[in-house]
Amino acid sequence: MAGIYIHIPFCKQKCHYCNFYSTVSLKYRDHFVDALYREINSRKDYLQSEEINTIYFGGGTPSMLTIDEICEIINNLKDNFNVSNNVEITLESNPDDLSKEQISNLKNHTPINRLSIGIQSFFDDDLTYLNRVHSSEQSIKCIENSIAMGFDNITIDLIYGIPTLTEKKWKENLDIFFNYNIPHLSSYSLTVEKKTALDVLINKKKIANIDESQSIEHFKTLVETTEKHGFIHYEISNFAKEGYYSKHNSIYWLGGHYLGLGPSAHSYNGKSRQWNVMNIKKYCEETLAANIIEETEELSKDQMYNEYILTSLRTSWGCDIEHISNVFGEKYSNHFMENIETYIKENRVIRNLNSYTLTNEGKLFADGIASSLFFGL
Predict the structure, then answer these.
(1) CA quadruple 142, 148, 153, 158: dihedral positive or negative?
(2) Domains of the chain and any CATH numbers
(3) Whole-model pTM?
(4) Which of 160, 157, 152 lies closest to 182 in space, CA to CA?
(5) Which residues of 129-153 are buried (b: 16+ CB within 10 A; e: fewer)?
(6) pLDDT tens track for 259-269
């Protein structure tokens, strides 16, 4: 499987917690769309005719694009790449951008077949803390209109660990999600990334800091509740009904190849990783000179092994010891086996035939467990 990610960098306002590249200025908006077409044409050989199974519009706020622009971008991709007839095409969106008319147009006049809606919380005080633009009322209307217009492949984002989010409110957030029979949920713990507005405001004591113990309790509630409703916890932050896994994100987790288009977007072809300039002005100017790649990194075997551990351990498929032995060699499989035993004894990892997966307890320590299994560090 291979996928294409398109980074649309424009936002109405910057959320306090966000550390993705985005801009609230629309000065280069029209130039950006033209630059994106040029990049599509210049990168058409990157995936070497692999079949494209997924297209993902991320951001930023892709729902700020017009219907015509979305269709034209997809048509450009189909003209330049080997796009599957059954391609999953996801559009990230914010509730305030998806009016009833916009949802109808997306459903009836574009190939978009999956909506990812950034709800984050159904409570206005949480949204204020996060500096989100939309209201809880807009969230509800957006979900109801999306379902009414015929979108059946929908995912929403919910954030837990927000200081204003009590356990009672967190359970209500989950209840609202399940009441709408939405097939997929992405749910993340609020984290404080350096140099974000959230980091600055917390350090200046203008807003409350995150309580790690609260985040842990919210995560436990999340796991228990989704399990009770028959959802599959197929990646640490992702839960779905059978048949509704994110095909695009699964490419990342399973080591597939992908092309990233737009400013700051990353690409991976199995041997090297590269990323575009993180500046809208430079991106628009450099596509004219076909020089938008900021850096390319050739991956060593140690790095490829470590990335496999980091991504696969987060999934329900886990780390496959046979895969490690066949792809990386005995040195790596022996290293893995020597270091994984401690976590099996602690009931943080469980073995099923050749696969090693995290238990619910282990998921609380996923990054630490993965880093202890790394090689060459």
Answers:
(1) positive
(2) 2-252 (3.80.30.20), 301-372 (1.10.10.920)
(3) 0.95
(4) 152
(5) bbbbbbbbebbebbbebbeebebeb
(6) 999 999 999 99
